[in-house]
Amino acid sequence: MKDPISVLKEKGGSSISPLRWEGGVLRLIDQRLVPYETKWLDLKSWEEVRDAIRDMVVRGAPAIGITAAFGMALCAIGFEGDGGDELLEVLEEAGRGLNDARPTAVNLSWAVKRMLNAAQSAKDAGHSVMEIKGLLEKEAINIWMEDVISNLEMGKFGAQLIKDGSTILTHCNAGALATGGYGTALGVVRYAHFSGKRIKVLADETRPWLQGIRLTAWELLEDGIEVEVICDNAAGFFMKRGEVDCVVVGADRIALNGDVANKIGTYSVAELAKANSIPFYVAAPFSTIDISTRSGEDIPIEERSSIEVTTIKGITLGPENVIARNPVFDVTPNELITAIITDRGILSPPYEDAIERCLRKSS
Ligand code: MRU
């Protein structure tokens, strides 16, 4: 059986991935240190996986979903009993812990649910605990592989929207590091680039974690794709001067009506794009659409520590004791979104109808 890294090399022309699965150990590149240092952390328990997600060792909606799936597999592998019911209970507890690590991206709870369903079906089919462990390991690898394949598909669909010679503005990092590999928004960029289009990316630096200047710029330069970084507050300047042809961003959760939660600042970029008549595209696997969430108002928005804003590498930026607010996602209303690029094709407004049509086709 092929592994995701060889599929990435063969079909994507880029083998960057934030994770490896080696001999029952989950290896994660510490994204807090990229690009200054390449440090791989070895994780052997679901608790270590939960902490890595919470502490931003791994980030990006699809990547935290895949990581959580391996967390569930590690929980099963570490289980020392021999009762199927007992294993299911332990897995449910791990699932709750993993889900709580970061609340906004639906990919996390989606992957945990899929692992729990796999365990339940295997138990109901009469498999032994030993067999369930093996099946869960396979299911996590499948989730990773499917993500890579869906990114390649999405890249192919999305690249049709990118004209030769375009400058594409992106926000945060929706690239290989945020997924199993290749990326969602940056998958579209990669596909356009590798199919011969001349393109340039303007990457918002993305305060406070700097995913744009650290991760997006690093990935694109690694793959020989032209990129320039801009301050978050410079997007309007470049749009008004006619230097942006389209915006492509990722998503952490898409509501049934097409409202999109993504990195804080995405909403402002979408308003600016609308004001300047620039197409605004969202790229995400179909599994990022949460049909149980009717609109963006129902999406839980994570708020992280004030310290992430008031300090950089331990240096305090403002007056001692100043407090900052740090919501890390915002919601872009569907009316600002020109199209949603998915692995099942390009969705156009009205999104609720488009999503329902897609669901009917696959049932
Ligand atoms: O806080 P992060 O770095 O996990 O936020 C990541 C984003 O907002 C990405 O744009 C989103 O997850 C899409 S990733 C393909």
Quick overview of this protein structure:
With 363 residues, this protein is of the alpha/beta class. The protein has helices at 4-12, 46-54, 61-77, 84-101, 106-124, 129-159, 185-194, 211-222, 235-240, 266-275, 307-310, 351-362, and strands spanning 19-22, 25-29, 40-43, 167-170, 200-204, 226-230, 246-249, 253-255, 260-263, 280-283, 289-290, 311-312, 315-316, 329-332, 339-342, 345-347. The protein starts with a helix and ends with a helix.
Describe the structure.
The chain is α/β, with parallel strands linked by helices and 363 residues long. It has 2 domains: 4-151, Up-down Bundle (Four Helix Bundle (Hemerythrin (Met), subunit A)); 153-362, Rossmann fold (3-Layer(aba) Sandwich), CATH 3.40.50. The protein has 12 helices and 16 strands. It has helices at residues 4-12, 46-54, 61-77, 84-101, 106-124, 129-159, 185-194, 211-222, 235-240, 266-275, 307-310, 351-362, and strands at 19-22, 25-29, 40-43, 167-170, 200-204, 226-230, 246-249, 253-255, 260-263, 280-283, 289-290, 311-312, 315-316, 329-332, 339-342, 345-347. The strands form 4 sheets. The protein has a 7-stranded mixed sheet with strand order 6-5-4-7-10-15-16, sandwiched between helices. Strands 11-8-9-14 form a 4-stranded mixed sheet, covered by helices on one side. Helix 2 packs antiparallel against helix 3 (61-77), helix 3 runs parallel beside helix 5 and helix 4 (84-101) runs antiparallel to helix 5. The radius of gyration is 20 Å and the shape is globular. The mean pLDDT is 97. It binds 5-S-methyl-1-O-phosphono-5-thio-D-ribulose. Pathway: Amino-acid biosynthesis; L-methionine biosynthesis via salvage pathway; L-methionine from S-methyl-5-thio-alpha-D-ribose 1-phosphate: step 1/6. One of its GO terms (molecular function) is S-methyl-5-thioribose-1-phosphate isomerase activity. This is Methylthioribose-1-phosphate isomerase. Belongs to the EIF-2B alpha/beta/delta subunits family. MtnA subfamily. It catalyses: 5-(methylsulfanyl)-alpha-D-ribose 1-phosphate = 5-(methylsulfanyl)-D-ribulose 1-phosphate.
